[in-house]
Amino acid sequence: MDDQTHAEPPGYIQNKDDQLKRLRRIEGQVRGLQRMVEEEKYCIDILTQVSAATRALESVALSLLDDHLRHCMVHFAQDAQHSHEDKVAEASAAIARLVRS
Asked: Residue 36's closest CA among 48, 21, 25, 23?
């Protein structure tokens, strides 16, 4: 993970509470998956729930990416002191990680 500090608040700050709710719901889904395995539930039922949790995480990731592009990238583009190429490369790498996952 990148621990860089930024002067600007993150792009998701407007939706922070919504993002936290979504992540807590996903956390509950993962705990439910653990219970299903502990209780030796049917494999296909577990896989169905894994798929749902994966889609939920992807949704959070896409929302964060959208916020980043709309807020952080726009703000950075307005700052003439920095190389835009670095930020574009950073965003491209994040998108590539999402696509590969």
From this structure: 48
